[in-house]
Amino acid sequence: MKINFDNDRSIYLQLAESIEDDILKGIFAEEEQIPSTTQMSVQYRINPATAAKGVNLLVDEGIIYKKRGIGMFVSAGAKEKIINKRRQQFFDKFIISMLEEAKKLGIPKQELIKMIERGQINE
Amino acid sequence: MNKDHIIPLAENPSFSIQIKNISKKYGNVNALNDVSISIEDKKIYGLLGRNGAGKTTLLNILTNKIYPTSGEILINSKSIWENQDMQSQICYMTEKNLYPREMKVLDIFKSAQITYVNFDMDMALSLASYFKLNIKKKNKSLSKGFESILKIIVCLASNAPVVIMDEPVLGLDAAVRDEFYKMLLENYVQNPRTFIISTHLIEEISSLIEEAIILHKGRILVKKPVEKLLEEGYSATGKAENVDRYCEGRNVIHSETIGKFKNNTVLEPYEERDMEYALRLDIEIMPISLQKLFIHMTGGKSNE
User: Is the whole model's pTM more than 0.90, yes or no?
Assistant: First the structure.
């Protein structure tokens, strides 16, 4: 788990996102224990309250769960949950703004599709 | 990351500090003007202010080193002047080195052991070796950086329910400062208690502290959780005319023009409904850093 915090967003959001990234990458498998908030706090030099806020965000979404007195674990089905959420975000963040930009530049739908295909070939 | 659990010590009893209507005059100068805040238990506070804002004066009053002109300090609802054992409860690291010049580091630890009932000598010694502080050296022969390290070690090992540090990282290079921040958090999660840290290096501690207290010209400007504070402002960048249009009727505290572009700092929360307007005017919205917010709130241009 590695994070380079930027100044663009709240730290707790960045922490939550990076835990999600690690779940997506399989660094934390489902039903596996993740580091405690105190460990994250020390590791990333962030206030424990901030770390707890980031983690609680994921607990609320059912991505991780707490076992009293033991620690925090990745929920079963967490990966799928994250993927679904990120897909929705992808649509909101990239597709919508792409379409807006395309409209500004007068790019028709057919050409847009061709551009995506061309991008995939170049990948 | 290693997964060893950090085991918290037994909980400290709760400890509240009330600063009530404190004023301090030096001749005709009002160093502090009717300062009232309450310090809640077991949080890390950042005390921020420009040079001469009154930070050290406030800390000196809080620790009963000097008397205020008026007002009072209550600790657990009792006046600080009636609390005889205060000295062992509050570990205060002054900006100046107040230990006897001829005293050796180890002897300074030993004297701290007498002052602070829960002083952890093992921790002090292991921190000293970690930071390569020679415990046989005399206080007077320590460099500026090692003076800071010595004082930091005494604070962390004191286990006092309240730790106050005035400019703790003076003379420390970036790597050692980072180690200090790590040690501070480790110490805090193991033994949660109240920390008040006064520093000029705002950016470095902004993620460490839970609440910011901003002192300006002897008055409390703000006391808020850092996260809440950062939600109170944002910067808007775009074509000057668009930024002007967007900012009409908003509380703009700073403005910079670069050619045709303009960057305004807005001191009000960014609301959902602002989004569409900003998008339409092609304005980029960015969060603001604590340091920037601090500079703007305390009167613009840095005077340091």
Answer: no
Fold that domain A11-76 belongs to in CATH: Arc Repressor Mutant, subunit A (1.10.10)
Mutation for testing the B interface, residue in A45, A70, A92, A93 having most B CBs under 10 Å: A45
Q: What is the pLDDT of residues A86-103, one digit of tens each?
A: 999 999 888 988 998 899
**Contact across the interface for B6 and A45, Cβ inside 8 Å:** no
ipTM of the complex: 0.79
Query: How far apart are alpha carbons B127 and B152 in whole angstroms?
Result: 10
Show the low-confidence residues of chain B (pLDDT under 50): 1-5, 7-9, 302-304
Say how far apart CA A63 and CA A78 lie, in whole Å. 5
Q: Where are the domains of chain A?
A: 11-76, 79-121
CA–CA dist B278, B169 (Å, integer):
41
Q: Are B291 and B206 in contact (CB under 8 A)?
A: yes
A-chain CB neighbours of B207 within 8 Å are: 5, 11, 44-47, 50
Interface touch A43/B209, C-beta < 8 Å: no
Question: How close does chain B come to A54, measured CA to CA in Å?
Answer: 12
